[in-house]
Amino acid sequence: xxxxxxxxxxxxxxxxxxxxxxxxxxxxxxxxxxxxxxxxxxxxxxxxxxxxxxxxxxxxxxxxxxxxxxxxxxxxxxxxxxxxxxxxxxxxxxxxxxxxxxxxxxxxxxxxxxxxxxxxxxxxxxxxxxxxxxxxxxxxxxxxxxxxxxxxxxxxxxxxxxxxxxxxxxxxxxxxxxxxxxxxxxxxxxxxxxxxxxxxxxxxxxxxxxxxxxxxxxxxxxxxxxxxxxxxxxxxx
Length: 237
What we know:
2 helices; mainly beta; single chain
């Protein structure tokens, strides 16, 4: 079974201590955004992407470009790693081979908000891959009716124009095993630091079927329900 993005968060935390051996003694390291495929875990630390074995050991650096990398996601077939990076003064979607290599830029759209606050999250933020590993799904403020509510797009790994998913807003999401449905947040609030929040931006999990166009709300707790993970016949969040 292949786990991507948020699905591997719990598994990866156990190996982050070993990965920290790559840093100078006494230096504090924050390791975030783990993604897992097979025996490999890729994560962000110090603004770059690193890879470490699930069994532990020293992490290897995958990116070294002058900029800031985040939100890595393995493709389901394990061949590629998509991520969001701030190069050339803008945040965009990039992809590298799973073993490392030159980064290829896939989006070319500036943020609609000049100097958007960090709590809004990165523009053109990689979220997941389509199940066939041909397209990267990302969250962008382009075409949004309100800059607080991003919209989900997909862009081919080979390059080309992004395509808008048929959703009026979006956040973190996961595909069903057959690829015909998704479980997702209609609100993205994951970079904000609010605690015990239950106001108008509280997140719930919805499912959407691309064939029937049916939208269903599947959680109703008054707090935060986020990071859905569709595994077999169950959705974890």
